[in-house]
Amino acid sequence: MTKKYDAIICGGSLAGSAAGFSLARQGFRVAILDRAEFPRKKLCGGLLTWKSVKLLKHLFGETPDSLADIDAINHTSDRYAIHSFSGLLTKGLMPYSFHFVDRKIFDQHLLYKAQNAGADIFQNMQITSSDPMHGVVTCTSGDTFSGRFIIGADGANSVVRRSFPHIDRERMRKFMAPTIEIHLDKNQFPRPIDDPELYIGFMEAGYGWVFPNRDKIIVGICGLKHKNANFSSLFKNFLNFLDIKSQNSSDFQGHPLPYGNYLETPTHGVTLLAGDAGGLVEPLFGEGIFFALCSGMYAGESVAHGLATNTDPIPLYTQRLHQQIIPELKGADRLRWLLFRSVKLFGPRTLRWFVNAANSPLAEMVHGMRSYSLLRKKHWDF
Ligand SMILES: Cc1cc2nc3c(=O)[nH]c(=O)nc-3n(C[C@H](O)[C@H](O)[C@H](O)COP(=O)(O)OP(=O)(O)OC[C@H]3O[C@@H](n4cnc5c(N)ncnc54)[C@H](O)[C@@H]3O)c2cc1C
């Protein structure tokens, strides 16, 4: 039997929870479908910037303190360091702290917020196909869901996106970056570390990171595949450089990260894509948490407006994306090519020069206080 809703949300992670919460709190009938059972593991560094904190407060009423109370945030730092093969390039103080979330707890908490607002949650519900024109979603269980609108929030390998005819699949594939991450106990890392560290020069068009948490250290790399042939051996080299011993390749975990393949019109028929499903990740540092929450909220609010006024939500969604999100992704994309090419031509020290010369504006861009587009002060619409 087909279950009928105002909106079907495919994926119950950040974009899905933000969309579901936005719709359900306005009284619309929403189903959120996810193949996983929460809490579930999600590969991620978990770094939150200022704009994510601002959005979490605006949308969910959450603060760093309320998230720390439930252990969703478990580390905070207002410093950073950037290294290359030859040592420390630069380090500094940020205008606002970075917060680090445990995605297992964070994602479940936001999903339950959507549920408490009235959304129906279907876990262990794997979507196999969706009809973007007629709002029908089918699942491996044999269940079928129909809605006046679908929001595809099912991540980088989105099944919903596959049903879109107009996607440039070659560009999508080319700029889908592999990542590898491991989570270490603090005592497995060779030295004490309290602040996030980035590592450049180990690969082309990519970077490595070491993010401290309260009880663990997250070490990872991401970069464009067509520029970096053997990802696993690059990661081993990185671990060796960090002096991290005895890690088996079987402990390495990978997940694709949209890295410059954002869709400018992530919509088709009655379907809107949000978060990684639409490639909406900042292509310099790979920040996706904020963009998933923000695009999920925009998608949910646009559909709510369309349902309330019996109008097409797609123009409103597209307008908000193009006013707020797309200029940031484009600006970060331009900056990354400038930096990656400069590092390739002139070596990692170029980055030290750049970061030292543009320290304060760059830090404000990372946090979203200043726009990647033309360096203006950023005015978010929330
Ligand atoms: C290694 C790594 C490190 C990262 N570090 C950071 C960081 O430090 N800071 C940051 O801001 N961003 C980071 N990101 C990016 C960030 O994790 C993503 O951008 C963000 O999780 C996107 O959220 P989302 O809701 O769009 O998709 P996801 O979080 O990927 O969620 C998609 C959901 O859809 C479900 N799903 C998928 N397919 C189906 C299906 N067929 N049927 C039903 N359900 C389905 C999944 O179970 C999942 O719950 C990192 C990413 C990676 C890979």
Helices and strands, with pairings:
Layout: E1 2-10, H1 14-24, E2 30-33, E3 47-48, H2 50-60, H3 64-69, E4 73-84, E5 87-101, H4 103-116, E6 120-122, E7 127-131, E8 136-139, E9 144-152, H5 159-162, H6 169-174, E10 176-177, E11 179-185, E12 197-199, E13 206-212, E14 216-223, H7 231-241, E15 253-254, E16 257-258, E17 267-268, E18 271-273, H8 289-309, H9 314-346, H10 349-357, H11 359-367
Parallel strand pairs: 1-2, 1-9, 2-6, 4-12, 9-18
Antiparallel strand pairs: 3-5, 4-5, 7-8, 8-9, 10-16, 11-14, 11-15, 12-13, 13-14, 17-18
The chain binds flavin-adenine dinucleotide.
What does this structure look like?
The two termini are 39 Å apart. The protein has two domains: 231 residues, FAD/NAD(P)-binding domain, CATH 3.50.50.60; 86 residues, D-Amino Acid Oxidase, subunit A, domain 2 (D-Amino Acid Oxidase, Chain A, domain 2). Strands 1, 2, 6, 7, 8, 9, 17 and 18 form an eight-stranded mixed sheet that branches. Strands 3-5-4-12-13-14-11-15 form an eight-stranded mixed sheet. It is 35% helix and 26% strand. The protein contains eleven helices and 18 strands. With 382 residues, the protein is α/β, with parallel strands linked by helices. A hairpin with a 2-residue loop joins β17 and β18. The protein is globular. Flavin-adenine dinucleotide (FAD) binds next to α1, β11 and α8.
